[in-house]
Design goal:
- The complex is a heterotrimer of chains A (455), B (306) and C (339).
- Helices cover 49% and strands 16% of the residues of chain A.
- Chain A is an alpha/beta fold and 455 residues long.
- In chain A, the strands form 3 sheets. Chain A has a 7-stranded mixed β-sheet, sandwiched between helices. In chain A, strands 2-1-3-4-5 form a 5-stranded parallel β-sheet, with helices on both faces. A 3-stranded antiparallel β-sheet of chain A has the order 11-12-13, with helices on one face.
- In chain A, β12 and β13 form a beta hairpin.
- In chain A, α1 (2-14) runs antiparallel to α2 (21-48) and α6 runs parallel beside α7 (182-194).
- Chain B is mainly alpha-helical and 306 residues long.
- Chain B has one domain: ABC transporter involved in vitamin B12 uptake, BtuC (Orthogonal Bundle).
- Chain B has helices at residues 2-32, 39-57, 59-63, 65-91, 99-116, 153-175, 177-187, 189-194, 199-225, 232-247, 252-272, 278-292; strands at residues 130-131, 140-144, 149-152, 227-228.
- In chain B, a hairpin with a 4-residue loop joins β2 (140-144) and β3 (149-152).
- In chain B, α6 (153-175) runs antiparallel to α9 and α7 (177-187) packs across α9.
- The N and C termini of chain B lie far apart (54 Å).
- The model of chain B has no long low-confidence stretch (mean pLDDT 88).
- Chain C is an all-alpha fold.
- Chain C has helices spanning 10-25, 30-55, 63-80, 91-121, 126-146, 165-184, 186-196, 198-203, 208-231, 244-257, 262-284, 289-314, and strands at residues 156-157, 236-237.
- The longest helix of chain C is centred in the N-terminal third of the chain and has 31 residues, at 91-121.
- Mean pLDDT of chain C is 85; it is low at 333-339.
- Classes of the chains: A alpha/beta (455), B mainly alpha (306), C mainly alpha (339).
- Chains in contact: A-B, A-C, B-C.
- At the A-B interface, β7, α11, α12 and α13 of A face α1, β1, α9 and α11 of B.
Chain lengths: 455, 306, 339
């Protein structure tokens, strides 16, 4: 600061008038000082986290040498470990489910715990938390307990990328779980790829996510498959020949499904007669529905979220639209029944798993989840659980805990019994698994059929 | 052809809502020369009040004539109170300050209401949308063919209410003492005050009136589109403002015409051309109007007083 | 005076090495760089909005729209030229040159939009401007959502990450410098006159519309620059980053700092960027804290709203009013007359 004062003083003597650059430099210096001062905190926060942090950091550094990880990660590691070894207070809650002092393997998670998509992020986090608890109860992996460090991204891509940087550079995690929204996963994936830390997305269905590189995986099916499922269901089960689509222009998910459905439905011999769009949060869809009504389609495909779908169903009924409504996994919510009323009954949707799936694994998961969080798990929770389970399985099988070894282990996942279906990862690092079609009943979703990939 | 008729009906139905909300904007602007940004959010509060009353009455009671009357009167009275409080504690202390301060305050109030209602603590409802009970049991009044053209009872009721409100307001403004006082305050608040008009009371009255109109509009909106949620006021409010500007801000029948016009334009743009551009239509239209005829369709161009 | 020539570039000459050293010293701190960059971007946004809202007394609430224009324009430009290397330059330098051009391009396009939006609406009274800028922001968002080439709702990916601490804070510094120099120029006097009394200013022969549009264009330019920088350190930009809420955050920054106070805007921009970040970091680090963090995050917007109301009622001039930070410094000599 004294240097700044000096500069500003010299400036003052130079200038005939007081106002101008002197205060500017001062102000800039003050700003930067504030940034620096505030920056100090996360570092301290990290160091005070818990004793095991030091352990983790050391492991991280060891690994980097061991496996020849990216140079930057290695270089930062020493300093980080040193920082983490500073005397610390004992707020050990930082890492989920981590026992004090013991050997742990640290995983990272990025999710939207706050913001508009918080419900998605929290479901996923609950699922992951449950999985980690299950694994640790059974003795953990490689004789070590698992722990997850969660960072919130507020549902924003820039925050997701930032959280990735922190997980990789600061926390030295061996593997990252996340995100739900494809936009956020796409912001995270390049970082994971560049520093060779494997990343498993529980529920991003956009194909582009895993195309980023060979360190990116997912445990759910992709949009092309989901679109295919509905197109096939409409053609084979409902014998529909014409379809209309009402898509949500604000969501890439909806746009992607629309494209695939159009392509597949046409390929299967049907005809898409009309495509209209709305924007998430609209409440009046009558203009679009009137336009769709004109084309008299057998089915109306609405790949969107439950908040809008319920209203669309009501208004479609009011306008005398006779088409059967078809939807996607975004429909799944208890709110669907409240907003859709009786109008939504008799519609069909594709999903990752059925809430009333009778298989023992799914049943056990539902009971455990209900006991822990007091709610029925949705697909996102189930997929979060599966993602963490796949990760644990791969970590156990991996030759060592370096990025490339873990990557290879994940890639070799085959017929893994997840609660939302068996998971086999294909060469594009996507899960190949069946989808279920559910029928909307009176307050429940009834299982109709399962559609296998490549059938 | 039947589609055209149906689009016309849809457009009038949504235009009615814009018109009712625009009436409130226009009145407040007329007296205070203030864009009351919080107007749409006051409407949202009214919706939740109506929702609460309808829920506590339960299905059949709420849809009886008395029930509906109760829902409307509680919401309108409640909103009148909210409007009064907003004016009394938000705007009145700033009346002598530059107009921007009041505008910023109104944006602040709008934010506090719309985001405050998204919290799920205490009586606040949380961000998830609620389904408004069907207090007016929907049934078709008029059906051509196999639902080729359909008019529902609530569409007619809404439209009738909007027209009655407009006529009532027109009568109030031009035929009553209070209306004369309003016009005087609108013309020159200081002089009006000197001539013995209780300026504060007139302004309060205007706010109460505008806010209860907003509550009424909000309930009709909820009956039409079912969903009640904290952000609902923002867009309806903005579009209603556009409607008020189109009609000539400060002009009562102008607001209604502007609202209906905007509803129809949106409907036809979405129905016949690109449905992806819906949100841009109103604002695009606003910019066109401001370029060509900034005083609106019915307004008079007024030179700013010094 | 022989020293006169150095008055213009001197501040830049002083700041450049400081920032360079700082950038060099922090290369291994990615999280710090991110935080400092986002803070810098917000500083640019706040200071540039302050030119219109604070200094000229107009009220724009669509600043995020101009930021979006800059971000997408520069991002698209950089991405298209990602593989190009200027033949006579080494790769690193060439990248930076292209980056610079992209940023300026983003700013220019945003300025053009500012001109197009400002011209019709600035003829009218200030409150119309508020609505029109808001509407403009919405139109931009809808446009981005509907344009295939810009990635629609998914956003624009694969923009080369060429931004640096130096670039962001240099731009922030230049923005502050320009804002300050505008105020002390004769243009600035006209702008201030418009703020204080538009009718009187016009009567005194100030071309009010002309000056308002000019202020608006300069402000949009820097918003575009902020967006362009943002696009070069965030791996994916999408329409939801540039909503009405973003515009309002910037408005809150300048209103709290004091409309018309550049340093006030800088200070509140820094505080309002770092404070929620710190709160979240502290709260989400514990498992039980997540719910609390969520609550705090939910509370942020109502608190912003209430802050606006409270400020207007209790201290309408904001923390600093139209004064600058150094005006609060006690000094012996009589200070230069306050604008």
């Amino acid at each position: 600061m004294s240097a700044l004062r000096l500069i500003s003083d010299s400036l003052k003597s130079n200038r005939p008038k007081g106002a101008g650059s002197r205060p500017l430099v001062l102000c800039l210096g003050l700003g930067m000082a504030l940034v620096v001062a505030c920056q100090k905190k996360p570092g301290e926060g990290a160091s005070e986290a818990s004793p095991e942090r030091a352990e983790v950091s050391k492991t991280g550094a060891g690994q980097a040498v061991h496996s020849g990880q990216a140079a930057t990660a290695g270089a930062g590691a020493g300093a980080e470990a040193a920082a983490a070894e500073k005397p610390a207070s004992d707020s050990a809650a930082a890492a989920l489910g981590a026992p004090e002092g013991g050997d742990v393997i640290l995983l990272g998670e990025v999710g939207s715990l706050t913001g508009a998509q918080a419900t998605f992020g929290i479901s996923t986090r609950n699922g992951i938390e449950l999985a980690i608890r299950d694994i640790n109860e059974k003795g953990g992996v490689r004789g070590k307990k698992l722990a997850v460090r969660v960072y919130d991204n507020q549902g924003k891509p820039e925050e997701s990328a930032n959280a990735m940087t922190r997980l990789i550079a600061q926390d030295k995690v061996v593997l990252i779980l996340g995100e739900v929204a494809s936009t956020n996963s796409l912001a995270m994936a390049p970082k994971a790829q560049a520093s060779q830390v494997p990343m498993i997305s529980p529920s991003s269905t956009n194909p582009k996510v895993t195309e980023v590189g060979d360190y990116i995986f997912r445990v759910c099916f992709i949009d092309p498959f989901q679109g295919f499922v509905m197109a096939k269901f409409a053609r084979d089960h409902l014998k529909a020949t014409s379809a209309a689509i009402l898509k949500d222009q604000k969501s890439d998910y909806s746009i992607g499904l629309t494209e695939v459905f159009t392509e597949q439905f046409t390929k299967l011999g049907g005809k898409v007669v009309s495509t209209e769009a709305y924007a998430q949060g609209d409440t009046d869809f009558r203009a679009q529905l009137t336009a769709i009504r004109r084309t008299k389609p057998d089915v109306l495909y609405i790949p969107g979220y439950y908040t809008d779908v319920g209203l669309i169903a009501r208004q479609a009924k009011q306008l005398g639209v006779k088409s059967v409504l078809l939807g996607s996994d975004g429909w799944e919510s208890a709110k669907l029944f409240e907003l859709g009323g009786t109008a939504i009954e008799g519609s069909y949707l594709s999903n990752h798993y059925a809430m009333n799936d009778p298989s023992p694994a799914a049943k056990a998961f539902r009971e455990k989840y209900k006991a822990a969080y007091g709610a029925t798990p949705d697909s996102l929770a189930a997929l979060g659980y599966d993602a963490a389970m796949v990760a644990a399985d791969a970590l156990a099988r991996a030759k060592d805990l370096s990025g490339p070894s873990v990557r290879d282990a994940i890639a070799a996942t085959k017929d893994f019994p997840g609660v939302a279906g068996r998971i086999s990862l294909n060469d594009k690092r996507n899960a190949v698994k069946p989808a279920v079609v559910l029928k909307v009943g009176n307050g429940t979703l009834e299982y109709v059929t399962t559609i296998q990939p490549d059938a | 052809m039947s589609d055209f008729a149906q689009h016309l009906i849809n457009g009038i139905a949504s235009g009615t809502i814009y018109a009712l909300v625009a009436l409130g904007y226009t009145m407040v602007y007329g007296v205070l020369k203030l864009i009351n940004f919080a107007h749409g959010d006051v409407m949202m509060v009214g919706c939740y009040m109506g929702y609460a009353v309808a829920q506590s009455l339960g299905g059949d009671d709420a849809s009886s004539f008395l029930g509906v009357l109760l829902v409307f009167s509680v919401a309108m009275a409640g909103c009148g109170l909210v409007g009064f409080l907003v004016e009394r504690f938000g705007y009145r202390p700033l009346r002598e300050k530059p107009r921007l301060t009041a505008l910023i305050t109104s944006i602040g109030i709008s934010f506090t209401l719309s985001y405050g209602f998204q919290l799920d603590m205490g009586f606040l409802p949380g961000a998830a949308p609620r389904a408004f009970p069907e207090i007016i049991r929907p049934h078709e009044l008029f059906v051509v063919g196999d639902y080729d053209i359909v008019i529902w009872n609530w569409q007619v009721i809404s439209f009738a209410i909007a027209i009655v409100m407009m006529l009532g307001l027109q009568f109030l403004v031009y035929r009553t003492r209070f209306g004369r006082a309003m016009r005087a305050v609108s013309f020159d608040p200081k002089t009006a005050g000197l001539m013995g008009i209780a300026t504060d009371r007139v302004i309060s009255g205007t706010f109460i009136l505008g806010s209860s109109l907003a509550a009424c509009a909000g309930l009709l909106y909820a009956i039409k589109d079912t969903a009640v949620q904290p952000m609902m006021g923002l867009y309806v409010g903005l579009k209603a403002f556009v409607a008020a500007v189109i009609g000539g801000i400060g002009h009562v029948p102008g607001a209604v015409v502007g609202g209906l016009l905007l509803g129809l334009i949106e409907e036809f743009v979405v129905g016949y051309t690109a449905s992806t551009w819906r949100d841009a239509v109103a604002f695009g239209f606003l910019i066109v109007v401001l370029l060509g005829r900034p005083e609106g369709l019915f307004g008079k161009a007024v030179a700013e007083k010094v | 005076m022989s020293r006169e020539w150095i008055k213009g570039p001197l501040p830049v000459l002083v700041v450049l090495p400081i920032l360079s050293v700082l950038t060099y010293a922090t290369t291994d701190m990615p999280f710090f760089i991110y935080l400092a960059s986002i803070t810098g971007v917000n500083v640019i946004l706040a200071v540039s909005l302050n030119i219109v809202n604070g200094i000229t007394g107009q009220f724009s609430i669509g600043h995020a729209g101009f930021m979006a224009v800059g971000a997408y324009a520069a991002g698209y430009f950089s991405r298209a030229l990602a593989g190009v290397q200027l033949v006579f330059l080494p790769e690193v330098v060439s990248d930076q040159v292209i980056f610079l051009v992209a940023v300026v391009f983003g700013g220019m396009l945003a300025a053009l939009f500012g001109f197009l939006v400002g011209l019709p609406s600035l003829r009218l009274r200030g409150d119309y401007l508020a609505i029109v800028t808001l509407g403009f922001g919405e139109i931009i968002r809808v446009f981005l959502q509907n344009t295939e080439a810009l990635g629609r709702a998914l956003g624009l990916r694969g923009i080369p990450q060429r931004s640096s601490l130096l670039a962001v804070w240099m731009a922030a510094f230049l923005t502050i410098l320009v804002a300050r120099r505008i105020v002390s120029s004769s243009h600035g006097r006209s702008l201030l006159a418009i703020r204080e009394d538009e009718v009187a200013a016009e009567a005194m022969g100030v071309d009010t519309t002309g000056y308002k549009v000019r202020a608006f264009v300069v402000s949009s330019f820097f918003a575009g620059v902020a967006g362009a920088l943002f696009a070069h350190f965030v791996p994916i930009i999408n329409p939801s980053s540039f909503t009405f809420v973003k515009s309002m955050e910037i408005v809150v920054m300048i209103v709290a700092g004091g409309l018309g106070s550049t340093t006030g805007a800088v200070l509140t921009a820094i505080i309002l960027t770092l404070l929620p970040e710190q709160l979240r970091t502290v709260l989400t680090s514990g498992a039980e804290g997540t719910d609390l963090a969520q609550r705090v995050d939910q509370l942020r917007m109502p608190i912003y709203g209430a802050t606006l109301v409270a400020l207007m009622l209790l201290r309408p001039q904001g923390l600093f009013g139209t004064r600058e930070l150094w005006d609060l410094w006690p000094r012996s000599q009589p200070k230069a007359s306050d604008p």
